[in-house]
Specification:
Length: 254
């Protein structure tokens, strides 16, 4: 069985198939960030661990960092994560897995904020790949598709009774077009990912389409930012409304 992709969905599907007795090969299309779920993936949320301030205060601390400062902190944390995960990462590279560590080495959180994918929190599948229990092939090494499966450039055929395309999800801007049509989607523009002001596009702020708001992301983000559309929704809906930056600045003085 072949699973195209090496993000979270692909790893989960491959691990489940393997656990049910299938012979599985993952086909990697592009480098992927791999991080052990414990402790490495949790390093970036250290403000929430241990005794200390209230949850509201911790949320305020978490949202108060300017993006350039956050990127610098994430580079340091990613270096530490790579140190923790060195045995696994080395083993993956030995079987040909291509690794990525995020924009300028900033790790998974900025991948999440820019594209919502491109990483995997290892809960066992990476160990299976590193040990050879789950096979690995590179998409760039495929010469052509045949009825039996992909023919590789070295002549091998990866026979496959099942092919799974775990190649990612479309974003909320695609959903806008599906639900409300192309005109509204064009008016709203991109959703998610950083804009010129280094804020997440159209998230928790008035959009160019009156009455249309977006929330999403993690439970923590929804908790921290849900008050913005809630407060603004009590007004007349005119104007650009508050954004994350304005709300963050306001909160610092409350």
């Amino acid at each position: 069985m072949l699973v195209f992709g090496t993000g979270t969905s692909a790893h989960d599907i491959a691990q489940d198939l393997h656990g049910n007795g299938a012979q599985v090969t993952m086909v990697q299309r592009s480098p992927t960030l791999i991080v052990n779920v414990e402790p490495s993936a949790q390093l970036y949320d250290g403000v929430y661990y241990g005794r200390g301030p209230t949850l509201d205060d911790r949320d305020l601390i978490n949202t108060s960092f300017p993006v350039p400062v956050m990127k610098r902190a994430h580079r340091l944390l990613t270096d530490k994560a790579r140190e923790y995960d060195a045995p696994l990462l080395s083993a993956l590279e030995r079987v040909g897995f291509r690794l990525d560590f995020g924009e300028d080495g900033t790790g998974w959180p900025l991948k999440y904020r820019t594209r919502g994918g491109g990483y995997y929190f290892n809960v066992g599948c990476s160990d299976l790949v590193a040990a050879g229990a789950i096979g690995l092939a590179q998409y760039q090494d495929i010469e052509e598709s045949t009825p039996a499966g992909p023919r590789m450039k070295d002549g091998r055929v990866l026979e496959a009774g099942l092919v799974v395309l775990a190649t990612g999800y479309k974003g909320q801007d695609h959903l806008v077009g599906t639900l409300f049509g192309g005109e509204v989607a064009a008016r709203v523009g991109k959703v998610w990912g950083f804009d010129e002001a280094q804020e997440l596009r159209n998230m928790w702020m008035r959009t160019p389409q009156p009455g249309l708001w977006f929330t999403g992301g993690s439970f923590a983000q929804c908790r921290m930012y849900s008050e913005i559309p809630g407060d603004a929704g009590q007004g007349d809906g005119a104007g650009p409304g508050p954004g994350i930056a304005e709300a963050r600045a306001r909160a610092l003085f409350w």
